[in-house]
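Internal ticket #5521
Category: modeling
Description: The requester needs a full-assembly model to guide mutagenesis choices. All entity lines are attached below as received. Residue total reported by intake: 800.
Assigned to: D.W.
Attached entities:
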Amino acid sequence: MDPLRFHEGGKLETASRVKLRNKSHLSVAYTPGVAEVSRAISEKPELVKKFTVKSNTIAVVTDGSAVLGLGNIGPEAALPVMEGKCLLFKRFGDVDAFPICVKTQKPREIVKTVAEISPVFGGINLEDISAPRCFEIEKTLVKKLDIPVMHDDQHGTAVVTLAALFNALKLTDRDLETSSIVISGAGAAGIAVAEILLKAGARDVLLCDSRGILHPGREGNNPYKERIARKTNKNRVKGTLEDAVRGRDVFIGLSAPNILTEKMVSNMARDPIIFAMANPVPEIMPEKALRAGASVVATGRSDYPNQVNNVLAFPGIFRGALDSATKITDEIKISAAEALASCIKPKRRKIIPDVFDLRAHARVAEAVAKTAWETGSGEKPGKNYFRKVLTRLRRVAAKF
Amino acid sequence: MDPLRFHEGGKLETASRVKLRNKSHLSVAYTPGVAEVSRAISEKPELVKKFTVKSNTIAVVTDGSAVLGLGNIGPEAALPVMEGKCLLFKRFGDVDAFPICVKTQKPREIVKTVAEISPVFGGINLEDISAPRCFEIEKTLVKKLDIPVMHDDQHGTAVVTLAALFNALKLTDRDLETSSIVISGAGAAGIAVAEILLKAGARDVLLCDSRGILHPGREGNNPYKERIARKTNKNRVKGTLEDAVRGRDVFIGLSAPNILTEKMVSNMARDPIIFAMANPVPEIMPEKALRAGASVVATGRSDYPNQVNNVLAFPGIFRGALDSATKITDEIKISAAEALASCIKPKRRKIIPDVFDLRAHARVAEAVAKTAWETGSGEKPGKNYFRKVLTRLRRVAAKF
């Protein structure tokens, strides 16, 4: 399949949920009938969530500053990726998503623009925005808006990584609390993974970036690196990545190709867990990692077993959030990871569900909606919520 | 049909133009395949119009400041109307349209926000923005952006009114150059109709607003009223609407209910043309106008003959513009009106095509594309362009 041809004319289109076959339809969908709906919303603003696209539509927002492995290619070149993301939202979450590629890279302007167009949307998925700008943008928008906002490169990645790790730990008879973990990569994803691991109960997490082990007070730390360094490295351990991995149980790579050698793996604890998720070339190729003694190996690639793929998280997270949550809290993310992990009976070559397993997406949505309700951030999901979502997803799948 | 129920859950959804049934589809629609498309666009920016939604998607932008007859109800309450508009774009133009309701009513901020999200869109339809702010916003965006921008309340109305007038003049053996015309209403639509009439060749046009005949130097004129007063009323005629209509051939109302009396109609020229388009209650009810001697009567209502309805113009205009034009010039608008008028053999009770007549929409698109090319503002439309558009519209209609 020629990718260029596949994308010609764009991948998304608008469809109607209502019939427009005669003048009587017209007079309800548009004037004069629509005036009644507008009047109802102007009298009771929360009805916008019931009678408009806001009920099921999110924006996939980028400034094109950190797109895939391509870097800062700008809003136009980012658009095919955002469209693809929107498709995945629909295909696996029955979430209507629309790409918003903004022409500015100033965090304050991005926030302002997104806030100004927010009336139409029931949620905001931030995407491919470079660190550390992404942290500030997300934080400000979460505070400013009354709809869920999530930067997927951070939290989608964190949720799926945590889910995969739950199962990998189970397979190697470990638990999160007592395992020693090293994360290579202190960008948006690396820091978010560190944060969720700590929230989920991990006690020994060390972060590395291209300059080695992240420690508090290190020269050139941005405020976000400094903050996470203080949380993860209270003893101010210094050294290289090689020093960091020695004796450790888990390696989580969100960094650069081929930086983990076989020797480094063989110096880790017995039966180490290796998540080498740099794309498209991982920190270590799975064959090598296994040869060096790795017990469970995951990558970001679809041509190897155990693909840690965000698409297992974001559609279900926003499905659940649109239905029941106003904020995507840490509790919600962790419960989503647990739901995802428990969808399958893990094996070494299958620690995470298949992307086309619609039950997994429905389970994530269910966990989000339930936890939102239990923790007081959302509405009570209806009875049979899981079943209803699954039915929706199957109906949508049939259209693809 | 209960309007509220009809609108529940919103009227628009996202659909996919591509298949997503297996991992191989995924790897083309999203990573890694999509990277090739992004790379191509980053090397050759104009390819964004070929390989993304920009090829066929416009924004329907409002600030909710002048929605239908409801006034300044804000962005949320405006959303059902914008969604309805988006549906009409799809139904009658195969244009994918997405509602953008902005949370600010400052012209400069609206311009900035629209410009910032413009990478995704192939055109901008401004909607229900109050005068005189709408003039400045449109003018600035037209200048700033390299995609077509049109405020439909002005130009959609102007095109359909001109089309209807062409046929009404024909039926009453008049021509535009020698007819005397009075326009009641000097808001966005009234001024735009005056402008297009002058461009199309009319020489005697007088505008009235609630304070009577608009004349240069009148106290309280905003700059737009002053400008059009200078163009239309060089002799500085003063007086009431009653004075203005006396002896005139054509009355065009875009103003307020019941302001034109039978007596005023009977004081007009022989066989006068009355377009009473205030909504929902016209300047004069058609029965009355006919009783008073009107030869041809049109309104904005669907329950009377000769409904002057913008939906006859905007889908075809943007269809043609997306295919071939970068600006929607006066020449383009006039050619669209001519095309619309010539779609039917006019009769007194049918001076304008039916909204569901897809040929009319395709003719408008054709006129736009052809004129854009002939006047150097667009690409040459392909052979059989009309046929191709008509086929597209029929295919879309079948889905509604």
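Resolution: model delivered.
Comment from assignee: Chain A has a mean pLDDT of 96.
Ticket closed.
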